[in-house]
Amino acid sequence: MSWLIRGARVLGGEPTDLLLDDERIADVGRRISSRGATVTDADGLLALPGLVDLHTHLREPGREDAETVETGTQAAALGGFTAVHAMANTDPVADTAGVVEQVWRLGREAGYADVRPVGAVTMDLAGERLAELGAMTDSAATVRVFSDDGRCVSDAVLMRRALEYVKAFDGVIAQHAQEPRLTEGAQMNEGELAGRLGLRGWPSVAEEAIVARDVLLAAHVQSRLHVCHVSTRGSVEIIRLAKERGFPVTAEVTPHHLALTEDLAATYDPRYKVNPPLRRADDVAALRVGLADGTIDAVATDHAPHPVEDKDCEWDAAAFGMLGLETALSVVQETMVDTGLLDWAGVADRMSARPARIGRCDGSHGRPLAAGESANLVLVDPAASRVIDSRELASLSRNTPYEGMTLPGRVVATFLRGRPTVLDGKLA
Amino acid sequence: MKDHLLSAADLSRDDAILVLDTSAEMAQLTEGRSVKKLPTLRGRAVVNLFFEDSTRTRTSFELAAKRLSADVVNFSAKGSSVSKGESLKDTALTLEAMGADCVVVRHWASGAPHRLAYSGWIRSSVVNAGDGTHEHPTQAILDAYTLRKHLGSVDGRRITIVGDVLHSRVARSNVLLLATLGAEVTLVAPPTLLPVGVEHWPCQTSYDLDSVLVKADAVMMLRVQRERMNAAFFPSAREYSRRYGLDARRFALLPDDAVVLHPGPMNRGMEITAEVADSDRSVIVEQVTNGVYVRMAVLYLLLAGGRE
Ligand SMILES: [Zn+2]
Question: In 3D, which of A8, A340, A268 has the Cα closest to residue B119?
């Protein structure tokens, strides 16, 4: 089946037509005619390459009460994503070829987005022995990103070895930068507010100390480091310096760290409890500038679904994490585009091209919208706005921090290899 | 006053003075009477919801409620952050179904009373009887009441609070309330036991107890757990006592009419010597008595005062 998209503004440019045929973009130009194609009017809509998320918790296997590969990728499609990297902290942990292949296959069967499993760095995320990284790479899942996310690879020798080892197959270590001893029992950003609220602090230095160590290790062994969910001004500065020196380092920021601050913790409502924690306005400003100037390569959601009972409780007892897939593009529009920090081509770069390149899925994702390329794209209405209602989300969980907020923009359609996964803002 | 008492910051200066004055009336009405009950809260249900053991605080609230003729239910819900037990929400829904008018809650988690008050699970008033390392507002009110009795007024007085401020809900509430009442508060502790950001609190801080004591109108010693030394907050109990404990030598540095407070339970020999704790300028036992009057006042003002 072929699709003719009429009058979309590619990366915010002049209106143009796109013809999708047989999984590819067959033609781009003015007044394309194609008999037999289904025509969709994209007047006023933007066309962006399908978004790529480097950091998604799909929870399957093990926590199918919070999310499944199917519901998580449905949420992804509704958010404009055509590929997601599924984090390894499932139960069992994705630390063998068997588990990553299972997750990959579930993604294929669901068909809403390409699922790129992330392999654990260490067995059972225990931080003691390397997982079989090569076997996961060689599996059908073709893993390239490895992470103990949820935990930090805090042992310096183990981190060094992991970085060295993945050079053999062009892998990357995605580090959850959190010095564990400095953050025992930590509940929120350490500072005046945490002291007043009586919540145990998670100091910036616990992130920055690991980021500083790891960029030096990456330079030392000349292997690729990716820093997950950068949350502090200091981390941005360290990464900027590392890049100036040519170190092989990339980094991501979450939408919530671009939009929200620690002040929300004063409600003691655990929907705002996340790891790393929400920081101060000064950090938010530095993250936005870092994303705009390219110090931070990518926006990654850290979509972290949790069942109601894990959030409807005391702050200390609640789970860390927030939903992100279905609101990411809107939050980036509000914080980066509507503020003039990034244009739509920049959004496509940070949410599609660069994350695809980091995850080494840039053969078919993160490509320009040009004839001959894989037909992975999203149509967005930037003039729309919507009030976030957690009951309307496709995710099995409800833990969005944007409940009741009005956010700009709306994903109208998503195409995965020429086939719509979302049409008229609904699952196709 | 607000509908709930969750933080000492919920009290404006006028509110605080009203609570203190009402506490004094409660003392007058009950002291020396053979029948200590007032009919004020007859038919109202006060629930003491304790997720953490504290016989002294629970008993104090229980006595206060009973002296006002309220029906009192003690509801202890065990469970820690490790083993959760019954959820706060389910407990709250149960209390709502029972028709509680006021829930007095003690909890190991900071903010749990705030969750009870604002999550829509219950409609009753919530009184924070100590939450995690956050606040313990009625303790601060009883301390202010005790200080006012001995110093005449709290306004302009120099109050020194010594010890584990980092983990102390008593210190947080006291700093807020005493500042509201116009006192000059100085926190004294090793730097490890002062929270990050304490410079933004409405008080002074010092690492040197001797220099602060000579100017103090009152000194409040906080409980310090010996086990804190295992997490490197200080090297040893002995060194802590030597640098921050109130012993006879330091006691002698205080001005003649200064008083000594302690929220209890005391670690005799750690933050305070027995000699000082039992001296005639120690008002520690009186604090307990005053606690009942203050809690009567709080329950009265929340349940009977102006809410009907
Ligand atoms: Zn993480």
Answer: A268
Domain carrying residue A123? 51-358
In this structure, the answer to whether residues A311 and A407 fall within a common structural domain is no
Before B235, cis peptide (omega within 30)? no
For chain A, the first-to-last Cα distance in angstroms comes to: 14
CB contact under 8 A, B197 and A267: no
For the stretch B264-279, pLDDT in tens is: 899 999 999 999 999 9
Q: Which residue of A has its CA nearest to B194?
A: A195
Q: State whether A332 and A252 are in the same domain.
A: yes
Dist CA B285 CA B276 (whole Å): 13
Question: Which domains does chain B possess?
Answer: 8-135+288-307 (3.40.50.1370), 137-283 (3.40.50.1370)
For residue B201, the chain A residues in CB contact (below 8 A) are 195-196
**One domain for residues A40 and A170:** no
Output the domain CATH number for residue A98: 3.20.20.140
Domain match, A135 and A179 both: yes
B91: CB partners within 8 A, 6+ apart:
B49, B75, B77
The pLDDT assigned to B307 comes to: 43
Q: Is A304 helix (H, G, I), strand (E, B) or coil?
A: coil
Residue B31's pLDDT is what?
A: 82
User: How many angstroms does the Cα of residue A151 sit away from the middle of ligand 1?
Assistant: 7
pLDDT in tens, B63-86: 999 999 999 999 888 754 445 557
Instruction: Establish if A363 belongs to a structural domain.
Output: no
- Over the range A329-339, which residues count as b (16 or more CB within 10 Å of their CB) and which as e? bbbbbbbbbee
Question: Average pLDDT in the B126-133 region?
Answer: 97
What's the structural domain count of chain A?
2
Q: What is the mean pLDDT of residues A256-280?
A: 98
- Chain A residues touching B80 at Cβ < 8 A: none
Which of A358, A389, A419 is a domain's end point?
A358
B89: contact with A, CB 8 A cutoff: yes
> In A, which residues are within 8 Å of B196 by CB distance?
190-192, 194-195, 201, 203
> What's the confidence (pLDDT) of residue B84?
57
Q: With pLDDT > 70 as the criterion, what percentage of chain A qualifies?
A: 100
d(CA B193, CA A376): 55
For residue B192, the tally of other CB atoms under 10 A from its CB is 12
Instruction: Check whether A33 has a pLDDT greater than 90.
Output: no
The interface pTM score, or ipTM, of the predicted complex is 0.93
| Residue A368 included in any domain | no
Put simply, whether A190 touches B (Cβ < 8 Å) is: yes
Query: CB contact, 8 Å: A267 with chain B?
Result: yes
B232 pLDDT more than 60 = yes
- Same-domain pairing of A29 and A161: no
Using a CB–CB cutoff of 8 Å, tell me whether B135 touches chain A. yes
Average pLDDT for chain B? 93
A365 lies in some domain: no
**A233 and A317, same domain (yes or no):** yes
DSSP line for A190-255: -SHHHHHHT--EE-HHHHHHHHHHHHHHHHHHT--EEE-S--SHHHHHHHHHHHHTT-SEEEEE-H
Percent of chain B with pLDDT over 90: 84
A215-230 average pLDDT score: 98
Which CATH number belongs to the domain containing residue A34 in this structure? 2.30.40.10
pLDDT at B1: 82
Quick one: A40 and A71 in the same domain? Answer: no
Question: Does A141 fall in a domain?
Answer: yes
Whether B49 and B216 have beta carbons less than 8 Å apart is answered as: no
- Name the active-site residue from A114, A214, A302, A349: A302
A302 catalytic per annotation? yes
Asked if residue A156 and residue A115 are part of one domain, the reply reads: yes
Say whether B115 and A315 touch across the interface (CB within 8 A): yes
Determine, for residues A195 and B195 on separate chains, whether the beta-carbon distance falls below 8 Å.
Answer: yes
Indicate the residue among A306, A328, A358 that finishes a domain: A358
Interface of B with A in 140-179 (CB under 8 A): 169, 172
- B89/A194 touch (CB, cutoff 8 Å), yes or no: no
Q: What is the pLDDT of residues B144-155, one digit of tens each?
A: 999 999 999 999
Best of A314, A315, A316, A403 to mutate (most B CBs within 10 Å, chain B): A314
